[in-house]
């Protein structure tokens, strides 16, 4: 299984949707609470190449983007292969 990390912020509807999709897929992932002004949010921004929004999702260390990107991968059939890699 790949190592999946998702930076989120409490109450963020996009974060909730992304987490729900990963849970539906039944894959283990690490959710990292990253509200504004925290070291975790700074880490998320640095890892994502400057993206300031959450969620930011990483699969095996590679940034795949946010919620819309995750759902785009799902619609195109490209998410499942990523979740099975590793």
TrEMBL record:
Domain Glutaredoxin: 4-64
Compositional bias of kind Basic and acidic residues: 38-49
Family matches, as InterPro entries: GLR_AS, Glutaredoxin, Glutaredoxin_subgr, GRX_bact, Thioredoxin-like_sf
Keyword set, alphabetical order: Cytoplasm, Disulfide bond, Electron transport, Redox-active center, Transport
PROSITE patterns: GLUTAREDOXIN_1 (PS00195), GLUTAREDOXIN_2 (PS51354)
Keyword Transport included in the entry's annotation: yes
Region (Disordered): 32-55
UniProt feature coiled coil, ranges: none
Pfam family membership, one: Glutaredoxin
Superkingdom of the source species: Bacteria
Function per UniProt: Has a glutathione-disulfide oxidoreductase activity in the presence of NADPH and glutathione reductase. Reduces low molecular weight disulfides and proteins.
Family named by the database record: Belongs to the glutaredoxin family.
NCBIfam families: GRX_bact
Protein name as it appears in the record: Glutaredoxin
The species this protein was found in: Acetobacter conturbans
